[in-house]
Specification:
about 190 residues, mainly alpha, Four Helix Bundle (Hemerythrin (Met), subunit A)
Length: about 190
């Protein structure tokens, strides 16, 4: 909408300008030199362009406010899944493979899904380089969490422990990347 507004603004400006210089000046009545109908039409088109630009700016500032709450949801989801993987890692010695399956399904998958659903907020807020850094770590953590789930479904206890520890490392790294990106620049 902003581009269309800019186009209308410039068409209106140029149309009004051209209307003012399109005729030779009448020395006796200078005001009759300007074709006021064309000038008014150009001014109206320019005003519509300005209105569209302001509407677009207003919508973007509203989206920015919305993205702050969306960012908090994404950040919290990532922190929750990282904390739950830490808890799982600390409880592994006293859990059966079925307990691990249940824990991952009930405690880890929902915040992972919430984070993945809102990941576009990271691009809007920080750009693609931060998005790539955070998502690389998150995807690796999620992959190892899924590997732990599969290993527990198959009864491979050693693989469960190893995969949970790797998942913990990657989720912690994702949280660190996001925290670093969200620090104020000095």
């Amino acid at each position: 909408m902003a581009i269309f507004g800019q186009i209308l603004l410039w068409i209106g400006f140029l149309g009004g300008s051209l209307a003012c210089v399109s005729r030779l000046e009448n020395k006796d009545d200078k005001w009759s030199t300007i074709p006021w109908g064309i000038y008014a039409a150009g001014a109206a088109v320019g005003i519509v362009g300005v209105v569209l630009i302001r509407i677009d700016k207003s919508q973007k500032s509203q989206a920015s406010a919305d993205s702050e709450s969306d960012f908090e949801t994404v950040r919290d989801s990532l922190q929750i899944v990282a904390q739950r993987i830490v808890e799982l890692d600390e409880k592994l010695d006293e859990m059966t493979c079925e307990d691990v399956l249940e824990y991952i399904d009930e405690q880890c998958v929902p915040p992972c899904a919430d984070f993945a659903d809102g990941r576009h907020v990271l691009v809007n807020r920080f750009g693609t380089s931060v998005f790539a850094a955070v998502m690389t770590e998150f995807a690796s953590g999620e992959r190892y969490m899924n590997r732990a789930w599969s290993a527990s479904a198959d009864g491979y206890v050693d693989e469960v422990e190893k995969s949970v520890r790797y998942a913990r490392t990657f989720f912690d790294a994702a949280v660190a990347e996001l925290t670093k990106a969200n620090q104020p620049q000095t």
